[in-house]
Amino acid sequence: MFLSLLSLIGTADAETGPARDSISPRSENASSAGLHNPFGRTPPGQCSKEVLRNGVQLPPMSELYRIWNGNKAWGTPEMVQAVVTASEEMAWLMPSANPLIIGDISTRYGGYLHGHKSHRAGVDADIGIFTVGGHQPQGGGFEYVTPKTMDYEANWMFWSSLLETGLVDRILLDQKLIDAMRDHLIDSGELSYQEAQEIFPPRGTPRMWALTGIFQHAPGHANHIHLRVLCGEDQLGW
Ligand SMILES: [Zn+2]
Hints:
Elements: H1 3-14, E1 56-57, E2 65-67, E3 74-75, H2 77-93, E4 100-102, E5 124-128, H3 152-164, E6 168-173, H4 175-187, H5 193-199, E7 214-217, E8 224-229, H6 232-236
The structure holds zinc ion (ZN).
Zinc ion binds next to strand 5.
């Protein structure tokens, strides 16, 4: 899976460059071995949907991403690990792309966050979508994206890097953007039909809630992705 991305990383590994040391070593199964993890893990039994007990503030890394509000950029260790790792890969593999826009995650101790149903426990993050040319929104909000304005290469580079951390529960996105990306990846040969079905399960797939590492439709998500990460060693199978 993700052969072109892996071959790109192979190229990057063969060279020396300023970002070289910040790239985590890859392994066949990044979720069980080899993923450098400076942020720790949520202790078993401490996962919650309502509060954040083991919060880590997303570190400021202006070359990788722009954080809207640091007071609302607290997540579980798994969340911070996923965002930092995938952003580092993005900056290394596509340095011409804009730094990512990181919207709300959670407040330091979690709980209700104004304007959101979730975002209470550090496992949800709103992140900008790349538009053509590797652009992220430059104003104070997210920008509405269509299949015509979406940057397929840049978004897939970032999204597949997120998936490869093994930390993703699901990525919520508007169905028409999901469909457009899935079709693009199949047409370009990036994914086989079977791989695409696994990552982008059709609407109505039974027990969708039990699947992980997938894209799923959510209304109102045509201007950002909503990343939900897995939590805790038990759920991650470590
Ligand atoms: Zn959200």
